[in-house]
Each structure stands twice: as structure tokens, then as C-alpha cells.
Amino acid sequence: MNNNVLLNVTGLHTQSVYADIRSFIDSFTSKHTQQTYERSIRIFFMWYTGKTLEELTPDDLAIKNAKFTNYQSYLRNHDVNYSNTTINNMTAAIQSLYTFLEINEYNVKSLNLKLKSLKENPEHAGSLRADEAEQMAQLVLKQRKGQEKSALIRLAYTTSFRKSSLLSLKWDDFSFKGNYYEVKVIVKGGDVHENSIPVELYKELLKIKEQPYYQQYTDNRLFHLGNKAIQAMMDTLRAELNISETRNIVFHSFRNVAVKFGTLEEAQEQLGHSNIHTTKVSYDNETKDLSNRPSMRMHNKISDDVFKSLSKEELISLILNEDSGVLMRLKMRAVEFGNQGNDKE
């Protein structure tokens, strides 16, 4: 190909990069797939070139494997806390696009985008008990910025806010309501997610302001912790508590701690889900008890009289050793019984 022809091809592509990407996206029959691919492609090129798809030229497209590997790492450390499955899907969309571009004679090599897929786990955030979460909040106090990290953990498992929302919180997002504090965050789509925290927890948050290093910040934000610091924090805490890697305990695990203490509908409000089916996945994982499935109960021949043989102290010990969700429901029932007794007097 002579230089004049090469210039003509380059000139043609300069005017049609977006049109060709648009053709690739529109080649999928599913509207959902089109939207998903377009979103993934826009995110990638904004990261890689700082441009929108409409602004791209052929010179923006070439990429080395090392750079695309960096993009995978960028997604893994993103504030949105993408799951490995989502990251694999996002990078696959770019890989597919580059195969299309190469076929259409752009100066790119689709082989440069070859990556090792991240290990996918449908339950990417393992289950964490409330007592474990609080133990972590205590242990982390001895780390650098310990008070700030401890407050972050407590606020995370109390509100169920995502990490990105927690790190963007400002002191103005809290308002006193008499016997509790209301806190609001902006989530995906611009929606507002609100929750309440006890006064005692707000006082813990205020201790962050007492730290000498905090005086350097003037942005009104509560937390000044990066993703790497939070990752290192979790790695250390897992090691100190001897938590097996198979449990897959990550920062996102704090988000589901509170759902054990309520109903499915309350869990939906707690997590800020618009679709209750999304909540059900988390709720079922957190409250699932295989030992109490019908397949087990049908063979249960233990008489109710077994409780009568226990002393008061043994019964109390039995109750207190139940999991946190069952224990909280029993406490609430106990309060109801107590109130009923008072009404009769």
C-alpha cells in the first residue's frame, strides 16, 4: 500500500471511529447487551484517553498489553467495588471490540488485550458475623489512623453503605433527630439512600476530628483512606483473626452484617435496593440455615419437653448462644411479653 492510499484510509477512519464502534455495539440484538457494552467501552476509553467515544481518532486506539493489564487493576481497586464477574465482563467487551476493529483494518492488535480472567465467585463477599465485625473495629485501633479505620468499620456494618459512599461522606450529611442521627448518601443513578445511627456511634465518628493528622484536611469529609490502605487493613485483620481465605471476607462483607437482624423487607431498605429480588440474594445467603431445612425437620423426633428439663440458667445460656439474628428476634419477643404483662396490671 503506497503512502497516498494509507493517508486516504487514515482519513476515512478519522471520521468514522465512533460510527464503527456504534456499528459494533448495534450488532447485538439485545438492547440490554448494547447498553452494557456501550457503558463498558465508554468507561474504558475515558480512562485510557480521557475522551468520549465521539471524540476518538484512530491514533487513540493502539494499546499495549501492559496498559490493558493496568486497566484490569484499575477496575479491581475502583471505589464502585466491582465484582470479579463484572470486571471480566467489562474487559471482555473491550476485547471483543478490538477483534472487530482489527478485522476492519484499524492499526490495532486484538492479541494485545489478552488477559487472565479473574477468579469468579458468585458470593464474592463472604458472610461476617456482627461480633466479628466489632472485633475488627477494636483490633484496628492499633493500626495507623486506627480511630478513623475503626469508625469506618462501625459505620459500614451499621449503615450497610457501600465503600464509595462511605468515603464520600461529609459532616453535613448527618442531622440530629433527637435520639439518633440520620445520615444520607447519594448512590448510583443519583438516588438518595438514608439510614440512622445511634448517638454513641456519632460520638465515635467525632473522635476522628481529635486526631492530630486530621487538622490538615479542609474538605469537610469524614474519611481520608485510600483503597490500598483499606485493602491492607482487611488483609491484616483477616490474618489476626485467623479467618480462612475460603470465607472470602472483604470490606464489602460489612454491608451484609445488619441484614441478619431484620426481615427481608427491612433488609431491602437497609441495603437501599430498588428490587427486592436483588436483596433476596444477600438476605438468603446471610440467614440461610441448612440445619433447619424441612429435610432435617421431618426427621426431628425431639420432644418439646426437652426445654422443661433445663434450668433457668441453662435456658438463658442456650438463648444467648444463638446467632445474632435469632437472638435479636427473641429479645424483641421478650420485650413484647414484658409489655403485655405490664398492660394487665
Notes on the structure:
This protein is mainly alpha-helical. It has 3 domains: 3-113, no CATH class; 130-287, Intergrase catalytic core (hpI Integrase, Chain A, Orthogonal Bundle); 298-344, no CATH class. 52% of the residues lie in helices and 5% in strands. It has helices at 3-14, 17-26, 31-49, 65-76, 84-103, 130-139, 146-159, 163-167, 199-206, 227-240, 264-271, 276-287, 294-297, 312-320, 324-344, and strands at 174-176, 180-186, 192-198. It has a 3-stranded antiparallel beta sheet with strand order 1-2-3. Helix 3 (31-49) packs across helix 5, helix 6 packs antiparallel against helix 7 and helix 11 (264-271) crosses helix 12. The longest helix is centred in the last third of the chain and has 21 residues, at 324-344. It is elongated, with a radius of gyration of 26 Å. The model is unreliable at 1-14 and 295-299 (pLDDT under 50).
What are the defining features of this structure?
345 residues, mainly alpha, hpI Integrase, Chain A, three-stranded antiparallel sheet, 15 helices, 5% strand
The rounded Rg comes to: 26 Å
Write down the CATH topology of the largest domain: hpI Integrase, Chain A
Largest sheet: 3 strands, antiparallel
- For this structure, what is the CATH class of the largest domain? Mainly Alpha
**Could you tell me the strand content as a percent range?**
under 5%
Distance between the termini: 100 Å
What are the secondary-structure elements, in order, as H or E?
A: HHHHHHHHEEEHHHHHHH
